[in-house]
Amino acid sequence: MGMETPPTCEPDRLLADNDQIEVGTSVLTVACTPGHSSGSVSFLGDGFAIVGDALFAGSIGRTDLPGGNMEQLLRAIRDRLLVLPDETVVYPGHGETTTIGKERRTNPFLI
Questions:
Q1: Using CA atoms, how far apart are residues 3 and 7, in angstroms rounded to an integer?
Q2: HEC string for 34-68
Q3: Rounded CA separation 100/77 (Å)
Q4: pTM, to two decimals
């Protein structure tokens, strides 16, 4: 595409389910949410969740890629995301933001 590949960085640790990490003044909890891909995680903060490609406004992540698993993704969404309060703002990997309550009530993949 005519663009130079940026340099990569080496991780200083691996993340595990329920680990807490500091980002600025916030503390985020790591929530394993596999299914879209085998190592997918979400980051849960105070009143928000950064969910990558696990959950979208009105949809869920693809599971037809290597490592994808629909049953695993739905279980992760149910067990790790839908347990959050309705007003929790969801920041997906792309697309519109939404809330846990709205997705619980209207997402056709979760009803």
A1: 12
A2: CCCCCCCEEEEECCEEEEECCEECCEECCCCCCCC
A3: 10
A4: 0.91
The answer to whether 58 and 49 are in contact (CB under 8 A) is: no
Out of 3.10.410.10, 3.60.15.10, 2.20.25.90, 3.40.50.20, the CATH code matching 20-106 is 3.60.15.10
pLDDT truncated to tens, each residue of the chain (111 aa)? 788 988 999 989 999 999 999 999 999 999 999 999 999 999 999 999 999 999 999 999 999 999 999 999 999 999 999 999 999 999 999 999 999 999 999 999 998
Q: Are 110 and 103 in contact (CB under 8 A)?
A: yes
Residue 33 near residue 42, CB atoms below 8 Å: yes
